[in-house]
Amino acid sequence: MARTTMEDIARAAGVSRALVSIAYRNAEGVSAATREHILTIGEELGYVHNRVAANLATRGSRSIGVYLQDLHNEFFADVYDGIREVAEDHDRELVLAIGRRERDSDAAPLTTLQGARVGVIVAAGLRLSDETALLHNRRVPLVSLARDIPGIDSVYSDNRRGAELATSHLLELGHRRIAFFANPPSDGYLDRARGYEARMLEAGLDPRTIETSYSRGEVAAIAGDVLAAADAPTAVFAHNDRAALGVLDAIAAAGLAPGRDVSVIGYDNSSAGSAPGTDLTSVDLHGVELGRQATELALRRHSRPDLERQFVRMQPTLVVRSTTGPAPHGLPRHV
Amino acid sequence: MARTTMEDIARAAGVSRALVSIAYRNAEGVSAATREHILTIGEELGYVHNRVAANLATRGSRSIGVYLQDLHNEFFADVYDGIREVAEDHDRELVLAIGRRERDSDAAPLTTLQGARVGVIVAAGLRLSDETALLHNRRVPLVSLARDIPGIDSVYSDNRRGAELATSHLLELGHRRIAFFANPPSDGYLDRARGYEARMLEAGLDPRTIETSYSRGEVAAIAGDVLAAADAPTAVFAHNDRAALGVLDAIAAAGLAPGRDVSVIGYDNSSAGSAPGTDLTSVDLHGVELGRQATELALRRHSRPDLERQFVRMQPTLVVRSTTGPAPHGLPRHV
DNA sequence: TTGTACGCGTTATCAT
DNA sequence: ATGATAACGCGTACAA
User: Is the pTM here over 0.70, yes or no?
Assistant: First the structure.
C-alpha cells in the first residue's frame, strides 16, 4: 500500500514535481490545460494532498488552531459553526483541540496546537490565568473567545448588558423582588452580577444576589428554600440555563407555575431551555457570530502580527418565552 | 520569533540532533542523565515538539483520525470522551474532523483525515453508502462507530435489542396499544422497528408503526392527531429522544399527563430528556463505551492490518424514569 | 516550467 | 551501552 506522492503524479504526467504542487494549490504558474491534466492523473492514482508535508514546508502557518472548552456544551458547537464558516471562506485548515472537564487548566491543549504549528489560535472558553494566556500568546497569537483577556485579542459577549436586559425585562413586567442566582465565584462572569445590581439600584430596589453552583440539583435545593421564605422573590434571574432549570425544578416541586407565580430567566439560550413544557426565557450570546468574529480577528492578526490589540464586544439579546410573565399582584404569597 | 528546533537544543546541549529526538520520544539509546539534560535545555529554550515534522518523518502513522458527525448532538461528545481516554492510555495523538449538518455525505472529512496521514480512522455516525465507505477503508483503515458496515470494523449498539427492551417494558406495564414513532426511512435504523414489531407480534398484538421525522415540531403535530383518535395508543416508543420530546409536547397540549395517561419512551438517553418536569424514560446506547471499544479496535487494526474483520455489538440498557407508568385501565380514553 | 535548496524530525548505520 | 552521521519523508518556493 505505498501511498502515492506528487513525485508519482509528476512522473506519470511527464512534468516536474514543482508543477504538480502548483496545480494542487491552485497557484499561479500553470496553464489551465496542464493543470487539468495533472489533477486527472492525480485522481486516477488516488492521490490525497499530503497536508503534513505541506504544513512542514510552509511552516504550518496557514492553518488555524481551534480550542473548544467542552463538547458537552452546545454553545461550543455553535461557536465552531461560526469558526468553520469563516475559515472555509478563506480556505484555511482547522486543527482542533478539546479541553477536558476534569482539568482546570487548558495549557495542554494549547501546547498541542503549538505542536501542530498552527499560525494562530482561536480559543473558546479558555481556562487559564491572564498571565499564562499572555505567555502562550507570545508563542502563537491567540484570540480569546467568550472571555475578555487584557492584552490579547478578544471576542466576547457583553455580560453586563445581558444581565441588564434580563433585569429590565423583569422590572418592566412589574416585578420588584427579583433575585439573582449567581455563578460560583470562580468563573469570572462577575459582569452579570454587576449588570443586575446596577439595574436594581437604578430602580430603587435592593439587589439580592444568591451564590449558587453549576449543579442543577444544588440550585434546585437552594431555590426551594428561597421560594419557601416569606419574602420570596417573584422573579429569578439565573446565571445560566442550567441553573435556571434548577430553579424551575424547585418551582415545579412547590406546585407553582413558572411565568405566573414566579418568573425565571436563564442565560445562554441553549436547547436545554426548550424541552417540552419548559420554554425558558433566556439571554442569547450568539455563539455562531462570536465564532465568526473571532476567526476574522485571527486572520487579521495572522497577516499583521504587529497590529495593536483587537477586540469585539457583542451585544446579547433577550429571547422572551413563557417562563416570564407579569408580577403577581396582591399580597406576598405564602406557602 | 524564530521557533526553536531540535537543532537549537542539540547545539546548546552539545549533542547531536538525533539524540535530542531520541530523548523527546522516550526512546532507547540515551542515558538518563543526558536525557534529563536535553529536556531541561529544551524547556529553557521553550521548545515544543513539532508534531508536523514528526508525523512527516514517521509517515504520520501513529495518529488516530476521529470523525464526529455532529457537535450539536451530545452523543458524539460522549463518544469522543471514550475515544480520548483510550488514545491517551496508548499515547496516541488524535486528529479531528467534524461533519456538517447541511451535507449528507461525509466524504470530505474523511479525505481531510487521509490528508493528515493518520494511520487509522474512528468514524462515528458516518453518512456514506456502504460501498463508498469500503473505498475509503481501502486507503486508510476505518472503524465505523454506531453503525454496522459490512466488511469494515464496526462498533455499534444493538438497536433491535434496545427496541425490544423498550417494548417489553411497556408490555409489562400492561400497555396493549403501543405505537412506534419511526425514524425517517432514510436513516437506516430499521432494527429499532424490527425489534418493536417482533415483540408486539410475540405478545399477540398489532404493531403500529408511524413514520415521523427528525423535527420535534413535526412529530408533535403527528402525535397530536394520533392521540386525539378514538383508538389512540396508551404508550409511544419513539425512535429518539428528540422525537419523544415532540410526543410529550403533544401530550402536554392535550392536557394529559405523561406516565399516567400516556407512556413515552425515547432513545439515546440524552440530557435533553431530563429538563425540569420532563424526566424521560429512554434507551441508553453507552456512547463513552462505544468510543472506547472503537478505539481499541482501531489500535488493533493499525498494528495488524491483515486481521479479519472485527466488530463489537454492545447491548443498550433501558433507563426508566417517570414518563412511563402502568397502562390506564378501564375504557379507552376519549378526548 | 524546472531544478533544487529548504522545513524539521526520525531512523538505520557506524564509531567509540 | 552511548552517541554521531547521514539519508529520508514529501511538499513548497525561488532562482534560473
Answer: yes
